[in-house]
Model the fold of this input.
Amino acid sequence: MVIRIRVSLISGKGRDYVSLLISNNGPAFPDFILKEAADPEPQIYRSQHVGINNIRYRLQLLYGETAALSLYNSAGFPCAELFLPRNDSNIKEEDST
Amino acid sequence: MTVLVVDDQINVVNGIVSGVDWASAGVSKVLHAYNATMARDVLENQPVDILLSDIEMPVEDGLSLLRWIRNKELPVECIFLTAHADFIYAAEALKLGSFDYLLQPARYEEICGAVRRAVKKVQQNLQEQQIYSYGKAAYRNRDLFLQGILKDWLTGASLQLREILKCFGDLKIPVKEESHVRIAMVHLLRWHDEPWDASSLYTAMENISAELFDQLGQRLFLLRLEKTSYLLLLLSKTLQNPPGDTILEAQLVRLFETFRYHLHCDIACYVGASILLKDAPELTQCLKKMQLDNISRQGGVFFYKQPEPLPPDLTRTDKLPYWKNLLLNGCFKMAEDEVCCYLYQAEASGALNHEFLEQFFGDFIQMLSKLPRGNNLRDVLAQPEIQTAFSHASESLEDTLICMQEIFRQLQIPKEEGSEKRQMARIVEYIQDHLCDEIRRSDIADAVYLNPDYLSRFFRKESGMSLKEYILSEKMKIAQAILCSTSLPVAVVAARVGFENYSYFSQVYKKIIGVAPSAERGKHADAE
Done:
């Protein structure tokens, strides 16, 4: 199993992102995972696949709606890509009162 | 130094053993016997240098013991002790080569003195023996000098000319520092029949050469440098009136013809000008280089001349990148033809020498070893067949060509279709890795070492679609996946797959996926 991590900068009009792409050469994501991952309001109270939703919520806490996690298959291999807003001011300060 | 004391009177033996100051005489060990039989037993079982013996003993006397020793050729010096100053005894003892004769009762000092002299004699004998064997060795080792010291000196070992002259002197060969010598290198190229074994070959060559040069008053030394290469050193036997250069050179040509005729072998002979002995090693190097540079393995007699430097443009090939390209594209036959053609051209231009080949070969191998990993081309170098061909590769044009052919042969072995699949995999991998960039055809071509036009043709042939179609469709698939799974702005998604121009992205997206990118969001919204 080869795990690859790619970091790249994306400059979309006025909104710059950092993309963290993690992929491996294992089996592709099955469809139901992809469907679930794309669901904007996922079921959180359950016993499996908690991790992905966990990350999603953390992203939301840190960056609001600007950040995104995308799961997809590319060339038959699973990819997980994090889009993090590059602008530091987007980051909500966790400890602010 | 060991002394054996023999007397039938025990008290006399004890007296001598304990009374004489042996150490001062140089004796380290004293043995004793009470009769001839016992003495013989001792003599047969351990080394004895000096025998100190009574003459009159029962059963067998001292003279008989000495006779036995002489018959056995034991290296023993003998001193007799006797109570009778009888001349017959003395005469007999002297005839047997006894060293000394002492009348009893002799004082211990007297005995000690006689023993001391005998010790000296024994030491002298030993030395003579040694010198004798040295002399024998030196005679036998004329060969050792030739094939050892002289050869080492000529082939560049840091020996002093003085030592060489001394060795010549030891062999009674009149050579001086200012003596003129001729050197010729004989290089056996190809055998017509079975090769000769080394020692008969050497003898034959030496005999032939000696016969031809004896008549010219030349002393000849034949040195074996390598399996196929011999060095002739010619020296005038007398220091006056050496034969002229033309005569010697003509004789060398004759020698070459004779060798060729008798040895059934193609020969190249490299002949140096007449030089001072001290310059011989340098000339030897030059001749060796001539031999190395004769990479076409041409036979004949070649006279040494200062080599001309190579034309600079031929010293190093600039065609390596091109050959590399051919190899990476699987055009092995073409690459082989190109390489051979290049070498033949170099030969025709007269620039081909050993350095050239070595340089060429080194560059070529380096090029192979730098080919990308995972590409079987590199592994070819590890093949045993290649390894063997390697060792001789730059020795001659023929050897280089053999090695090249072997390399190309091995290159072609890995399954032909596999190589195309691998090539395709490399292209796809590059594209997948760069989907977030704008991918130019020339970038891919550079990355996978293909000519851009060839790349396009190859890709279409292998995949059934054009390179551009493939890249765009891969990009759009990713874009679609991201659009559907996130709410990122479409411009960001476009940028993510390498599109700076949003409208162009939309256009392409629609064409490939069938709907506008914003429509994907619409579906998204519908789902909500």
